[in-house]
């Protein structure tokens, strides 16, 4: 049985004092969950977040990293640096980085390898644009992104990766993919992994959905057969709302938790 992983992506939000306050508020609200709880925070919050989350079940990650270990790359942060302060996760290839910061399938692949070499767990994002979706290219795009991202990884590494399927048109727009649509896209990613790494890897890999997840739609999405939790943007900025998403299993069938 795959675990559900609920990860918050704070993007460029939250000052250190806000991060500390958030985690102090969130910790008691999620302490009994059997789901994995992760917060991917800005670099400037990492140290404070890690200290505050000590002795809780909240894991902390970054939102990006460079693939080189060190050197003349002004402004960049390496996997080794993240690991040195005990960060555990790192988001790689978010669509905002692909769109605004020239992230490519090739750099995504290099970053994933560097993350594994340094003991970080990558959360790798794939997803189609609205035009690609309307042109019927969704499956092609997301399976190709997946294939290129994972190229050269071992089966063991693939089993340990987290993939976040985030349709770009659903990010920050309030529009979510229907749970059936999201599940089908995620199934196609799993099939791609099965073709390249075998059934075992495909059954083990955690694949999240991301894009306007909130407490009122989390349960429906996360209970689908192939959706193993979510990568949550806007709704991860309020501790109570995020805790309801983390605790989605506690709400009865059909009950909406606003
Ligand atoms: P929203 O939840 O704000 O749509 O953002 C999704 C996202 O990009 C998470 O990485």
Would you kindly provide a brief summary of this structure?
With 258 residues, the chain is α/β, with parallel strands linked by helices.
Describe the structure.
With 258 residues, the chain is α/β, with parallel strands linked by helices. It has 12 helices and 8 strands. Strand 7 (206-210), helix 11 and strand 8 form a beta-alpha-beta unit. The structure holds 1,3-dihydroxyacetonephosphate. 1,3-dihydroxyacetonephosphate (13P) is lined by residues 9, 94, 166, 171-172, 210-213, 231-235.
Low-confidence stretches: 253-258
Strand content: 5-15%
Proportion of helical residues: 40-55%
The SSE string, one letter per element, is EHEHEHEHHEHHHEHHEHEH
What ligands can be seen in this structure?
Answer: 1,3-dihydroxyacetonephosphate
Number of strands: 8
**Neighbour order of strands in the largest sheet:** 1-2-3-4-5-6-7-8
Number of helical segments with 4 or more residues: 12
Q: Which overall shape is indicated by the principal axes computed on the Cα atoms?
A: globular
* Rg computed from alpha carbons, rounded to a whole number of angstroms: 17 Å
**Cα separation of the termini:** 28 Å
Task: Report the structural category.
Answer: alpha/beta
């Amino acid at each position: 049985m795959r675990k559900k992983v609920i990860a918050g992506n704070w993007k460029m939000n939250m000052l250190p004092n806000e991060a500390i306050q958030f985690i102090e508020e969130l910790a008691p609200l999620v302490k009994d969950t059997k789901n994995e709880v992760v917060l991917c925070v800005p670099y400037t919050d990492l140290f404070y977040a890690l200290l505050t989350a000590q002795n809780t079940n909240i894991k902390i990650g970054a939102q990006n990293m460079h693939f080189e270990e060190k050197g003349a790359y002004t402004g960049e942060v390496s996997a080794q640096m993240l690991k040195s302060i005990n960060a555990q996760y790192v988001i790689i290839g978010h669509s905002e980085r692909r769109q605004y910061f020239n992230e490519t399938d090739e750099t995504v692949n290099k970053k994933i390898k560097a993350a594994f070499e340094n003991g970080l767990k990558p959360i790798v994002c794939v997803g189609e644009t609205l035009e690609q979706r309307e042109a019927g290219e969704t499956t092609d795009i997301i399976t190709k992104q997946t294939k290129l991202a994972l190229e050269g990884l071992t089966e063991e590494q693939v089993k340990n990766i987290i993939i976040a399927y985030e349709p770009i048109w659903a990010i920050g727009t309030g529009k979510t993919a229907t749970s059936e649509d999201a599940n089908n896209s995620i199934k196609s990613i799993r099939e791609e992994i099965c073709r390249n790494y075998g059934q075992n890897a495909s059954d083990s890999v955690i694949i999240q959905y991301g894009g306007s997840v909130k407490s009122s739609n989390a349960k429906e999405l996360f209970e689908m057969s192939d959706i193993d939790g979510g990568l949550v943007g806007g709704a991860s900025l309020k501790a109570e709302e995020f805790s309801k998403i983390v605790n989605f299993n506690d709400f009865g069938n059909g009950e909406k938790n606003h």
